[in-house]
Every structure is written in C-alpha cells, then in structure tokens.
Design a protein that fits this description.
The protein is mainly alpha-helical. It contains 15 helices and no strands. The chain has helices at 14-22, 32-45, 50-68, 80-99, 106-119, 123-136, 142-150, 161-169, 177-188, 195-198, 203-216, 221-233, 237-247, 253-256, 259-269. α6 (123-136) packs antiparallel against α7 (142-150) and α9 (177-188) crosses α11 (203-216).
C-alpha cells in the first residue's frame, strides 16, 4: 500500500484506510493496555516498520483525546491536562522514531497534524509541516482538511484563512486541482452545519472537483452520494436532481445518516414529490 501508493475506486488511499481501521477511537470502552501491548509486540518483531511507529503515535493521540474529551478547553477537567500532554509527547516520540526509518508513509505527516492541534504548535510550524507533507505527497488529499481543521478560528486560525489556503492548493504541481479542493471542503463540512453558508467555500469549484472525481471514478457510489450531498448543502437543485435519480432507492447511509434523511432531501429536490 505504501510503496505503490495504492488507492480504492473512490480515490481513497489504502494505507490511510488501514491506519483508520486499526487505530482505536478516542471514545468508547477501549482496552488501551491491550492495544499498547500488541503495537509494542509489532514494533519488537519489525523494528524498521514505519507503519508500526505511526500506528503507535496515532494510538497515543487517540489516548490523549480520550483523557481530554471533546469539550471546549475551559470545560476540560484540570486533572485531564497532564495526561493529555504526556500522551501527546509520547506520540511525538513515536513520530521522531518513524522519521529516522528508511520506509516513508504519508500517514507520518497525517499523524503529525493531530499532534500539532493538541500541542498547539505555532502556526508557522504547522504550515511548514503541511508544505513538507505536500512536497513528499502532493496528491495525498488527506493533508488538506487536517491542516484546515487546525486553521479553524476555534483553534489557531483566522476567519477565511483555510478557505484561502484551499484556493492556493488548486495550483499545486502534481496535486489534485479542483478535486483536492472539493475533498477538502467535504472534509470541513463536519465542523459546520452548512459549510457553504458559514464559510467562504466556493460551490462552483467544489462542483467542478466532483465532476472530475466522477470522471475518474465512474463506478463509485460513494462519490455519487457525496456529490448529491454537497449539492443539497449548496441548494443547487438542478445539479442534485440527476444525481438523486441515479442513486434511486439505494443511498449510502454513511453519507446521509439515515434513509429517512435521504428521502427528505430527495423530496426537496423533486419539489415535494417522491
């Protein structure tokens, strides 16, 4: 997956999906000791495995956010901060070890953004990290939303800052142009009720990006559903109508949340007629 830069028929990198599949979530009943023991066993058997060290770093970042919780900083319990900082420091150590190995992976850079967010890296350092990541993997689109999350005004950025950077990324040599922009905006949607109404995200560029994705990945039901979803957010009934017709009665629940929500949106697209 790493050496071939393998992707699925959705444009998603297989190495990224592997990491996300085996990294414990920060919430829920997690046996953290079990995970740690198994990752350490992996590292002992394969000391030159960059993937093992990155997974360990991601384990520690998830473990750190487990201690902190998802509340605003002023609502975090005082005794949670030392654990949060200690575990992020351990994640940083794992990334430092990974950086010295011959094997390279885009997930090294991706994991660093979570550490940057938690430790509050200076903005110059976070952007420098992003530029280095893009120099190594200009077509890895996961970096974009990871940095833009950091640049949200609720964290360390200014109003309109991530949107401007997203526009600049369209011109990157070897990058994904409008497709990369569209994927980034979709990634930022989770931080807003409507990313087009609450930010300066450009729907026409997003639309162009999804048209590019549909041409590259014509059989992807995920991209079809995502395109319809963002068309709804943009209130573009004309674009959404043929997409909903193509989806029919088989929506992707991971995109819509529920069949009922999908039907509500389809009803709007059809002017109140199912």
């Amino acid at each position: 997956f790493r050496s071939e830069r393998a992707i699925f028929g959705t444009g998603s990198w297989k190495i990224a999906q592997l990491h996300w599949a085996i990294t414990p979530p920060s919430e829920g009943a997690i046996n953290w000791k079990w995970y740690d023991e198994h990752i350490r066993d992996w590292e002992a058997k394969y000391p030159q495995s960059v993937t093992a060290h990155i997974v360990h770093a991601q384990y520690y970042t998830s473990f750190a956010w487990n201690a902190r919780g998802g509340e605003d900083s002023d609502k975090v319990k005082p005794d949670a901060w030392p654990l949060f900082e200690e575990r992020l420091a351990e994640a940083n150590k794992q990334l430092a070890m990974a950086s010295r190995l011959a094997q390279k992976s885009p997930m090294f850079w991706h994991a660093g953004f979570t550490v940057a967010l938690g430790q509050g890296w200076p903005k110059e350092a976070a952007i420098k990290w992003f530029k280095a990541a893009k120099e190594a993997y200009p077509d890895y689109w996961g970096f974009d939303a990871a940095l833009y999350q950091y640049l949200l005004p609720r964290w360390y950025g200014e109003e309109g800052e991530w949107e401007k950077m997203a526009l600049d990324e369209i011109k990157r040599p070897g990058g994904l142009a409008e497709e990369g922009y569209a994927r980034a905006v979709l990634g930022m949607e989770m931080y807003h009720k409507n990313v087009f109404k609450e930010t300066k995200a450009d729907w026409q560029i997003v639309k162009t990006g999804f048209l590019q994705m549909r041409e590259k990945y014509p059989t992807s039901k995920l991209i079809l559903n995502q395109f319809a979803f963002v068309a709804i957010l943009a209130e573009d009934r004309q674009t959404a109508m043929p997409l909903f017709k193509e989806i029919g009665v088989h929506p992707d629940p991971g995109v819509w949340g529920s069949v009922a929500q999908y039907k509500d949106n389809r009803n709007w697209v059809n002017g109140g007629r199912y």
